[in-house]
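hiii so um. not sure if this is the right channel but i have a protein structure encoded as tokens and i wanna go backwards to a sequence. like what aa goes where. can anyone help
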């Protein structure tokens, strides 16, 4: 069914006339699909048209099953008005459906119908069965971010698994496209105790191969299988086009590395000092959470390595699971005296708390010093010896710099890892966590009890018993960016209202803003009408029908209307109430159950750029005027088109070889593009202290958010202790935020750089508007980014559209 007529659409140009270069650039690199029939990417009007038709048709299909023909005719008139309102708001960037739907909704490849889960930003599962890891694999393959929880209690539920087996990975000899298997095939040679897994050329086929692998090692009927061989010949070669999702195939190697990596995990070979696996019967062992984490990360690494997807994972674990707590510790190495000092401080803190010191700890604390000389580099572990050698070599002004990078567990970078506290930790333990976090950036932590309380309130339980809290904490977790509270096997699709778009000449158009918030709830609720391809996930999704109505441009808007804190709170309360009421009303109209949780605030990195670089989510803009730098692969057709525009400031990435700008540009693999931005901010981010940032978070939690408010708290060196104190004092209201060390942004080509109004005006006036026709010269196929920019989450692991 088509709701937007040609006559209606003819009123709109390809792009809004006020669409800033940064907005157009971000849209083209992230959400614009390649149209092979036209030999070009979509324009904004086409993307919005496609996403709007998809979303409204979800409601039409549902009503077609439940209404009489006469009622359906009237309903179509209502839905046409809804589609026109949705299109107009999206086109003018007043609000957005999810970025996932902007990418897959109504795409000509049919991806949204074949893979409905591809529409969803967020998912979560407990890992208590080997099949749960297969679900995780599938969700990552369709582009959904996955939160997972692995605890001692959950890992005990997993079937024992054999770890005494051999494998062979057959030499890859790709077959003709017509001969490829779509689904994987398992062959058993019982007499020789061998099995062969031939991997099919599809997402389903890849997941099936992992399922077969786990079945061979856990099911009693396969106990006699001692050797497993893998055949990859049906997997399409690296670089071949992926027609349904877009992008290019990663080839068979990442898949082979995944199986090899999982084999190492099961044989306890990831790190030499790991505790032995518990043997439960001859040949069978029981894995611990660290093994589950490693397998999930190996799966994620396989998905990401093709270069056309990024993996978003978060792992939640017990507060006393120190093996998992230190899983990523030191994987970036220790560099400089300050890092080694913190390393020793953490050890002292662990001793006071009775936390066991890992076997590898002291080895990581050994300082290494490199001395470059004519024959190469000589490494010392004694500072004096290094200096002495440098003197003998005639090296002047040698400065010994200590480092240690002896723990390169790179696959563990695939997830953010966070402690799932069931009860408030002691102040000293929380100080320990902050100390580790200050040194390493992780682990984060979340308050499961407050998450459980919020869910129970929506079930009408305002004074839950401890048993109710415990049972709820057992079954819940979060998505990778930690703004959605999810029951195991559930998903969420997020929508956004750009509050700044409703400010005109210093006044907030509150009535229009309220209508947009209502529409945001309806857009989100319609997404719950899909039938998910994983039946057990579909059941939970339809039970809870979670929404995530988010806001962006908030701080810019509040600055522009000069709102005091009480006015800000009142507007938030109104928008929160409106979203809840509209979600409930719409559920009743559809005859379906109400959404358990409705409001949230997501990171909003990419869509905020499409909205014109408004302040993202609940954060402040960088400063009143600033330069926003965005990186792009030099070979991307969009990058080549940008180089043809007058007045665009484009530089090679810092460190690119070459003695002149021209030479560096020829050698550049990554280009950095400067975009001037004028925001609503009245002060710079530098002037905001830790208390101000927490005040905003707790205000949103109290006045607006039913889930959680994604927030990155930026901490200057002297603010870490204060942040710990604030969290401890406000624990009952706290769920979780990210913490990031303040770097000042003073290094070359920093993502944000404050500038004067004069410099902004000069750059903006000289920057030629983006000419879409110049892109056509270079556009050959779909090479756009398939997920959001890494700025969506400060840790750089989160974003999946």
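sure thing!! here u go:
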């Amino acid at each position: 069914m088509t709701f937007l007529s040609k006559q209606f659409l003819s009123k709109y140009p390809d792009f809004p006339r006020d669409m800033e270069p940064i907005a157009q650039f971000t849209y083209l690199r992230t959400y614009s699909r390649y149209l092979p029939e036209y030999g070009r990417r979509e324009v904004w009007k086409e993307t919005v048209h496609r996403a709007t038709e998809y979303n409204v048709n979800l409601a039409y299909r549902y009503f077609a099953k439940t209404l009489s023909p006469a009622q359906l005719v009237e309903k179509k008139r209502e839905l046409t008005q809804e589609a026109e309102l949705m299109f107009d708001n999206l086109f003018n960037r007043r609000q957005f459906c999810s970025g996932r739907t902007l990418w897959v909704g109504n795409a000509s490849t049919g991806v949204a119908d074949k893979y409905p889960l591809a529409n969803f930003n967020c998912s979560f599962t407990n890992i208590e069965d080997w099949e749960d890891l297969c679900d995780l694999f599938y969700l990552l393959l369709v582009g959904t971010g996955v939160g997972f929880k692995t605890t001692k209690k959950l890992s005990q539920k997993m079937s024992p698994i054999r770890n005494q087996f051999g494998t062979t990975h057959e030499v890859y000899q790709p077959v003709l496209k017509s001969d490829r298997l779509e689904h994987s095939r398992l062959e058993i040679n019982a007499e020789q105790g061998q099995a062969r897994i031939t991997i099919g050329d599809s997402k389903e086929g890849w997941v099936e191969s992992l399922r077969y692998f786990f079945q061979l090692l856990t099911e009693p009927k396969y106990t006699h299988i001692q050797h497993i061989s893998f055949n990859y010949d049906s997997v399409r070669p690296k670089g071949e086009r992926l027609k349904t999702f877009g992008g290019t195939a990663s080839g068979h190697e990442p898949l082979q590395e995944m199986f090899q990596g999982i084999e190492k995990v099961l044989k306890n070979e990831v790190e030499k000092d790991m505790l032995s696996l518990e043997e439960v019967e001859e040949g069978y062992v029981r894995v611990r959470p660290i093994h589950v984490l490693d397998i999930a990360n190996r799966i994620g690494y396989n998905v990401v390595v093709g270069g056309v997807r990024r993996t978003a994972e978060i792992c939640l674990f017990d507060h006393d699971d120190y093996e998992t707590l230190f899983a990523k510790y030191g994987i970036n190495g220790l560099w400089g005296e300050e890092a080694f000092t913190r390393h020793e401080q953490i050890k002292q803190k662990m001793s006071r708390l009775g936390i066991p010191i890992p076997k590898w700890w002291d080895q990581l604390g050994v300082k290494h010093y490199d001395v470059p000389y004519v024959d190469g580099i000589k490494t010392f572990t004694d500072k004096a010896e290094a200096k002495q050698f440098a003197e003998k070599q005639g090296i002047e002004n040698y400065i010994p710099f200590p480092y240690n990078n002896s723990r390169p567990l790179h696959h563990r970078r695939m997830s953010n890892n966070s402690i799932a506290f069931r009860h408030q930790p002691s102040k000293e333990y929380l100080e320990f966590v902050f100390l580790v976090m200050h040194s390493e950036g992780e682990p984060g932590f979340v308050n499961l009890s407050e998450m459980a309380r919020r869910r129970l309130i929506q079930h009408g339980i305002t004074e839950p018993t401890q048993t109710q809290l415990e049972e709820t904490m057992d079954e819940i977790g979060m998505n990778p960016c930690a703004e959605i509270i999810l029951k195991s096997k559930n998903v969420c699709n997020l929508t956004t209202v750009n509050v700044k778009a409703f400010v005109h000449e210093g006044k907030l158009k509150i009535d229009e803003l309220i209508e947009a918030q209502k529409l945001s709830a309806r857009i989100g609720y319609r997404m719950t009408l899909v039938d998910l391809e994983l039946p057990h996930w579909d059941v939970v999704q339809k039970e809870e029908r979670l929404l995530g109505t988010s806001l962006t441009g908030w701080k810019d808007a509040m600055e522009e209307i000069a709102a005091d804190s009480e006015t800000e709170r009142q507007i938030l309360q109104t928008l929160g109430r409106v979203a809840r009421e509209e979600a409930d009303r719409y559920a009743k109209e559809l005859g379906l159950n109400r959404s358990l949780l409705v409001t949230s605030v997501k990171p909003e990195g990419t869509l905020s750029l499409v909205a014109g670089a408004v302040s993202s989510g609940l954060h402040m803009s960088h400063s009143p005027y600033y330069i926003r730098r965005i990186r792009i692969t030099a070979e991307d057709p969009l990058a080549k088109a940008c180089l043809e525009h007058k007045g665009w400031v484009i530089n090679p990435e810092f460190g690119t070889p070459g003695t002149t700008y021209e030479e560096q540009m020829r050698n550049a693999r990554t280009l950095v593009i400067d975009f001037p931005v004028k925001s609503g901010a009245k002060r710079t981010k530098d002037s905001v202290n830790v208390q101000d940032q927490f005040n905003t978070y707790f205000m949103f939690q109290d006045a607006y958010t039913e889930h959680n408010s994604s927030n990155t708290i930026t901490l200057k060196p002297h603010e870490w202790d204060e942040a710990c104190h604030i969290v401890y004092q406000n624990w009952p209201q706290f769920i979780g935020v990210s913490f990031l060390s303040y770097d000042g942004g003073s290094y070359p080509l920093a993502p944000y750089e404050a500038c004067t109004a004069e410099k902004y005006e000069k750059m903006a006036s000289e920057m030629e508007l983006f000419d879409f026709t110049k892109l056509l010269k270079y556009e050959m196929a779909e090479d756009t980014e398939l997920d959001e920019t890494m700025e969506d989450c400060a840790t750089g692991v989160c974003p999946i559209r």
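oh and The radius of gyration is 27 Å.
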